[in-house]
Amino acid sequence: MERSGYVLGAIILAGLSIRLALAPYSAGSDLAQFYGFAGTMLEHGACFYSYADAIGFWDKGWPYPWPYVYGPVMAYILALLRYAVNGSVRAFWSGGSYHVYVNPTWAFSVKLVFILADTLVAVLLYLLLRERSQKLAILGVALYYLNPITIHVSAVYGMFDGLALAFFLLGLYLSRRTRVSYALYGFSLAVKQTLVFPAVLSLWDAVLRGRKAAPRIAFFLLGGLLPFLPMILLCPSSLGALPGLMKGLNVSYTLPLSYSMNGVSSLATYIHLTKGSDTLPVLQHWYVPSLLLLALVFIRHSFNRNPATSAALAYAVFVSTYWRVNPQYLVPLVAFMILLAALEDGVITTLSLFTAVYAGIWPVMQPSSFWFHVHMENPNWTLVHIVDSLTFRVFTDGPYVAYSIGLTLLLYAVILFATIPYLKNLKSWLTERIRVGA
Fold first, then answer.
1. How crowded is residue 281: how many other Cβ atoms within 10 Å of its Cβ?
2. Can you give the pLDDT at residue 292?
3. Are 413 and 273 in contact (CB under 8 A)?
4. Which of 269, 293, 306, 352 would be a feasible disulfide site paired with 253, CB 3.0-4.6 Å?
5. How many domains does the chain have?
6. Parent domain of 298
7. 167 exposure class (CB count in 10 Å sphere: 0-12, 13-18, 19+)
8. Does 48 reside within a domain?
């Protein structure tokens, strides 16, 4: 085995060991809610979405009134896990306080899926980058797999953005097998819809192929619709509930501020809280800069048809402009920034690498030990103290607003440096078309 192989193995072993050591002793609130979702899926099967709203959540065995607003893939996985390992979640009022405790068996079982997805992402990054440079590939894996934010999301809090990312990256890796590749892009949206901008970019790439577009788009749709097939066949009325579930995503102020990763939204919310100003219209028009920046990425892709770099830029547009960016959205961002840094050069590489590192600062700022005791009935206090010693435990809003503004500015810089030069190509193309037309 080459030396690089040993280094890669050491990185994977180190990252995996950290994740497995943390996973049984912490749990985010979503893990508790996932237990309720799993029970509803087991009870109602293909009619799941008809019962996925927050109405009567307590009678459904849910600890929180949060609807299920994702594609069905995760619901299937959760149901399978609950059937296989059962576990438990206890929710009750005591002394005027509401307590939600997650059984370690459930927490670890669900997180194991996320950890495996995280590991697959690391391997796929290596495979995508090794042709460019073996050293870059190793560096990319280390920057992703040992990044505090990816460890936090998969092994501490527990969220499945890495799972959707894994399917999308697998599609990029299998790009020579066009049908499979586009089916995977579509399938990733059925896992979590936050990859919609990279997915739309892949459709634009298909359109640019001319007559080859139709089969690519067809397989994209097939991949996206396949997980819904049991519902379409057995309980089509269930899908009618989806628009109602999505209404819960109405634009609002982004509280708590420590969990808002979009600088514009964070600043608008902070001004509203401290000055009383009505800044909600700023958030409600998030789509204006989003469409403008996405158009720049589309123009660039028309002249530089690299699906990996264009998908990375499309996701950067999402994180920099969407009104509600949660910490788990930074997991795909880190991976895409690593791809962009390796496949581009100059200032884009520097900015992308810095952004990937910068994203990892957030869990270190946080009092991350909170998730090691708030939902654990018998906390591992030794681990709580260790996490406390490794984090800054910032409790005030100001530093988080500054952090999110810094992240958004970095992403704007990455996007503009990567796309603006291609406007010259567009100008030349339009000039040539006018001459030919004349």
1. 9
2. 98
3. no
4. 269
5. 1
6. 251-360+396-438
7. buried
8. no
